[in-house]
Structure formats: C-alpha cells, structure tokens
Amino acid sequence: MGDGLASAGHPPHHVAMPFKEDLVPFRKTRKVTKLANRLGTSTANCVMHVMINDRHGFVRESASFLLVLEKIWKARGLNSEQVWAEIGERIRLADELRAKGIRPRKGGQYRSTKLP
After folding, report:
1. Same domain, yes or no, for 35 and 51?
2. Which of 38, 44, 58, 73 could, after both became Cys, cross-link 49 (CB 3.0–4.6 A)?
3. For the chain, what is the domain count?
4. Is 43 within a domain?
C-alpha cells in the first residue's frame, strides 16, 4: 500500500504489537510529577496566549511545552524519534488522503485518530 513505515520493515501503526515495556505502568516519581505540573502550566499558558492573541507569548510557551514534554519522554525512557515518526506518519496519511481528494473531517466519510 506504499506505507512508508511498513516498507521500512515496520508494521503499519494499527498492526504494531506493544513492546514489553509498554505494558508495564510507569512508576510515579517526584521528578516526573514536577515535570507534569510544568507541562500543565505550559499548556494553560499556551491556551491563554492564543485567547489574548499574543503571538510572541504563544511561541515562547510552545517552545517551553515541547522542551518539558521531551524531558518527560526521556524520564520515561521513551525515544523521541518514536514520537516524531508517529507525527510524520499522521502527516503522510493526511497528505495521501488529500492527494486522493478525500477531505477528512469530523462526521465525514473517512475518520481516523491518526490525522494531524
């Protein structure tokens, strides 16, 4: 089907089997709890900057959000390349649908949680 990940030796997303470590719940730690609180604050600040139309503040908080998120990924042993690959796959799917003239939308003919 021309799936970039499947042809690279990876199964399509909907077929991928979970890794053993994905089945084990994360152990709660003070470090990750603090990071999660910072992430929530950055999220709220991003929303506020959008609401008040503060472009510079939104850019600044978005950068902070991504940095804290990457710290959480690292603290949890998650490879950031996996996340960026997932984002890339979602963009690829959206591009493929657009090329076929399919406009994904809520309540539309084609529904997917994998669209950006």
Report:
1. yes
2. 58
3. 2
4. yes
Q: Is residue 77 very low, low, confident or very high in pLDDT (cuts 50, 70, 90)? A: confident
Instruction: Write the CA distances from 44 to 11, 30, 54, integer angstroms.
Output: 36, 21, 14
Domain containing residue 96: 79-116
Burial class (CB in 10 A: 0-12, 13-18, 19+), 114: middle
Q: pTM value?
A: 0.61
Q: What is the CA radius of gyration of the chain?
A: 18
In a domain, 59, yes or no: yes
**CA-based torsion, 30, 34, 116, 113: positive or negative:** positive
**92 found inside a domain:** yes
As a whole number of angstroms, the distance between CA 25 and CA 106 comes to 32
pLDDT in tens, 9-53: 555 544 455 555 555 556 678 999 999 999 999 999 999 999 999
Residue 13 counted as domain residue: no
